[in-house]
Design brief:
Number of strands: 8
Order of helices and strands: EHHEEEEHEEEH
Number of helices: 4
Radius of gyration: 21 Å
Strand order of the largest sheet: 1-2-3-4
Distance between the termini: 32 Å
Strand content: 25-35%
Largest sheet: 4 strands, antiparallel
Structural class: alpha+beta
Amino acid sequence: MNDLYTEASVKKRVTATDTLIKGGVIALVIILVLSGFVINKLLTILGVLGIFFAYYFLPMLNVMYEYVFCDGQLDFDKIMAGEKRKHMYRLDFDQVLIMAPANSHALDGYKSNPAAKKLDFTSLEKDRRVYCIVVSSGDIQTLVYFEPNDKMISYIKQKAPRKVSEY
């Protein structure tokens, strides 16, 4: 049994957009509940429904990405609120053109393609080592950004040494 298997995960930074969404939902719920007591009971009911909505959906803004490399395939999963997992993308290294650090000049020709689809599975934190994988599936090119650990980079180099660039 010579399968290469490793996994890594990163927690996505809470962005200003996430904070605005949380604050907006909470403010709307408070306004609905308070105005419901003064104006109309229907607004109170909407406010209570808003509380349940906020309780269920706001934790979904807490996101963690998990990468699983298993013998030539790399899976990207999104874990919301620490409990709900959603499979986001799977790539096979037979379709990979190149994997390099995101700031590498080896990727310049691929990044300039306006039709390329971009997938970002990073933590959005500064000073992190972000890699980009260029996947070609027919005429469609996909740029996948992620933050692998050293073990994952090593295993990917073992599986596809000519497709991994360090520069």
